[in-house]
Amino acid sequence: MTLKLAIATSLVLSTQAFAQNSIDTIIEKYNVAHCKSELSALASDIIGEKKHRLLVSNQTSKGDFESLLVSGVLEYKDRQSHIIFSMSHSGGHCDVAYKESFAVKNPCIVVREEVFKKWLFKGKLNDQTHVFSHKRDDKFIGYMTSTKDGSYCLVSRQKTAS
User: Fold this and answer.
1) Tens digit of pLDDT for each residue in 85-109?
2) If DSSP states are collapsed to H, E and C, what string results for the chain?
3) What local confidence, expressed as pLDDT, does residue 63 receive?
4) For the chain, first and last CA: distance in Å?
5) Cα–chain-centroid distance for residue 118?
6) Residue 110 contacts by C-beta under 8 Å, 6 or more apart in sequence?
């Protein structure tokens, strides 16, 4: 009975550890003092259960100012993306953001219907780059850039939480 209880406890603890994404491990390892919950919530929302790998690109902590830059890769069923999480704290205010980019082997007109179908068109940065915002969250912005021959589309999404 004691062995069964120990095994059950071990399984529960390993499941809880697995549910944690890498950003939580980074927050602990790098002793992030500010914006922990905001950064963890954003990363949890974006990463979910997806396989990912993150590494710290930069960390600064001077007096009341603290910043953290984390880059990595996020795996979907059909593609991988580059992802960057950033956090800065100054004067008691937290700014947390993420940016994700990936290429799709389709013209942007097709990607528009697949990725940004329900997003609002905000404008154009130039002839190849269109900007969108999520219809329920104006801090969630998307970009599509067509390659010169139109066969690929570079997609970027970014979200800020402050």
Assistant:
1) 999 999 999 999 999 999 999 999 9
2) CHHHHHHHHHHHHHHHHHHCCHHHHHHHHCCCCCCHHHHHHHHHHHHCCCCEEEEEEEEEEECCEEEEEEEEEEECCCCEEEEEEEEEEECCEEEEEEEEEEEECCCHHHHHHHHCCCEEEEEECCCCEEEEEECCEEEEEEEEEECCCCCCEEEEEEEEEC
3) 84
4) 50
5) 20
6) 153
Token pair for 77: 């069923």
The pair phi, psi for residue 144, each rounded to 5°, is -125, 130
Let me know the angle formed at the C-alpha of 21 by 89 and 154, rounded to the nearest 5 degrees. 80
